[in-house]
Amino acid sequence: MTRVLVVGSINMDLVVATATFPRLGETLFGQGFATHAGGKGANQAVAAARLGAKVTMLGRVGDDAFGRELMAGLSADGVDTRWVGVTAGVSTGIAAITLCNADNAIIVVPGANALLSPDDLDVAEAAFAEADVVLAQLEVPLATVEHAATLAVRHGKPFVLNPAPAMRLPDSLLARSTLITPNEYELAMALGEPDAHWQGLLAALPGRVAMTKGGEGAYYSDGAGAVLHQAGFPVQPVDTTGAGDTFNGALVAFWDLGLAEAVRRGCAAGALSVTKPGAQGGMPTLAELNAFLGSRP
Question: How far apart are CA 145 and CA 85, in angstroms?
């Protein structure tokens, strides 16, 4: 059982469906409303836990109803929340999402996520020492992510960074990252090479990039710089939300099997996740993933 430490965001997604987007000053009747547990950190923690990893979450929520609900949900999926801080006087992070046909408009309020600090990580340093692999994203302060990488290196642990939302990565953070897991756009942004071809960027970081590419699966480079391809798994998609987070959670859950097999299982888990609605709602269990892979040649 791989021991995974996830350092990242915990959000509540507030989703409104409507026939048309409102104009400035206009009030409309919506067609539906739902709340979904979210945040890239929490999503990836749940994905790894459902696939059999022993997962610890390091993050922050507000002292409010959303925070309590999200903490309970993480615990129900077997995620250890002892290092999730509760911040008084600040809301839990939310994403307000308006869905209209195939389009959406999203406002993210980081809330307590923005207060996750390097000091919080120092208090939880024992979690780094106990982990087999550390996973982070970019929905908490960059200085905190950089410190997470420093602590992972200090304790000799691999540091996997999902560089989303897309931004240029500091050279120091990139140097401390054992593996980065961007999509094509995020890879170009992370390396500050918007006009470069993705194959060249993979080859430039041999063995240190696994790039997701939707239904095509994933591309990654070996230690010699050769670009390898893991084909996607054809499915009938229902909701693609959370597929990338599922890939990342699976990748670290199966980290001990080596990069090629971890990527293969990550692609399979990501494909399986889009056959059900919701980010965390579609994330498969280990039994479901094994059955899915067993039905494929």
Answer: 16
Q: Give the whole-angstrom CA distance, residue 169 versus residue 244.
A: 19
Dihedral sign for Cα atoms in the order 265, 13, 55, 252: positive
161: number of Cβ within 10 Å: 27
Closest CA to 130 of 4, 258, 274: 4
- Pairing state between β 159-161 and 133-136: parallel
- Taking only Cα atoms into account, the Rg of the chain, rounded to an integer number of angstroms, comes to 19
Spatial distance between the Cα atoms of 91 and 62, rounded to a whole number of angstroms: 5
* Closest CA relative to residue 180, chosen from 193, 191, 194, 192: 191
CB 186, CB 174: distance < 8 Å: no
Respond yes or no: is residue 245 known to be catalytic.
yes
Tokens read off for 172:
């120091």
User: How far out from the chain centre does Cα 251 lie?
Assistant: 11
Task: Express each pLDDT in 63-118 by its tens digit.
Answer: 999 999 999 999 999 999 999 999 999 999 999 988 888 677 888 999 999 999 99
Q: Which two tokens stand for residue 167?
A: 């931004």
- pLDDT, one tens digit per residue, over 48-70 is 999 999 999 999 999 999 999 99
Antiparallel, parallel or unpaired: β 93-100 and 103-109 = antiparallel
CA angle 184-185-188, nearest 5°? 90
Contact 10, 45 (CB under 8 A): no
**Burial environment of residue 78 by CB neighbours within 10 A (0 to 12, 13 to 18, 19 or more):** middle
Token digits of residue 188: 């170009």
Dist CA 17 CA 20 (whole Å): 9
Residues 77, 80, 120, 245: which is the catalytic one? Answer: 245
**Structural domains of the chain, ranges and CATH numbers in brackets:** 3-10+39-92+111-294 (3.40.1190.20)
